[in-house]
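Morning, I've got a small favour to ask if you have a moment. I'm working through a protein record and want to make sense of it properly. The fold is given in discrete form, as structure tokens running alongside the sequence. Can you walk me through what the tokens say about the fold? Thanks so much in advance, here it is:
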Amino acid sequence: MRRCEARHQRGVRTRPGKPWLPICTAAPARARRAHQDLGQEGEGPHGRGGVRRRLCEEEEALRLLQRRDRRCPENLVGRNFRAGGPNGLWLADVTQFSIPAGKIYLSPAVDCFDGMPVSWAIRKSPNAEMANTMLRSACETIGGGEAPVIHSDRGCHCRWPGWLKTCEDDGLVRSMSKKGCSPDNSAMEGFFGRLKNEFFYDRDWDGVSIDEFISLLDDYMRYYRDDRIKESLDWKSPMQYRKSLGMVA
């Protein structure tokens, strides 16, 4: 297939008489910025042809991102974070802690039934291993016939192959917030807010190593699950509440 035919099939506008040269619809400000970028990168002469090529590359990259974004699952939660029972709706996200010794990342799964952290992983890097380990650990709590909805933002950790395979293998139903819309996962943001207010903020972390911080954070997550009482749970912790209902031995 000739190049001009391939461009037409992709729906790219081309110039009359020069079908191999696409028309870029960028605003003048973008053209001026591209002109300056080319000059700073030392690419030599950068007249209208060079600027046009740079703008076309940017527009093609934008189209690819938009197509990839459309493949994300729909938001099945609609900001309704209530669940009728355990393992009905989970929330997932990643948050960062910065201390003098370095940065630490927490990836939890929170059950909307009672706010219990079902599982979590703490790492020095927000990589695929962290997210996948957390999700596999959460799936170990699933009983027969249960298919939790796992709701998250559109972070890359929820679109990596390992995450997708775990969801498929364990029957999880994926749901995602709109792009850049934090209220769509506000319950998870609230969990992180409570965690940092109680555990992280207004404390002096000088002299605390990363490994020591990870141990302290893991202890707090266990405390939140097993001992931290909540008024909405009749002044019981999530674990105590489930035991009172006969859901946990």
Remarks:
- Residues 89-244 form a domain with the Nucleotidyltransferase; domain 5 fold (CATH 3.30.420.10).
- The chain has two domains: 3-70, 89-244.
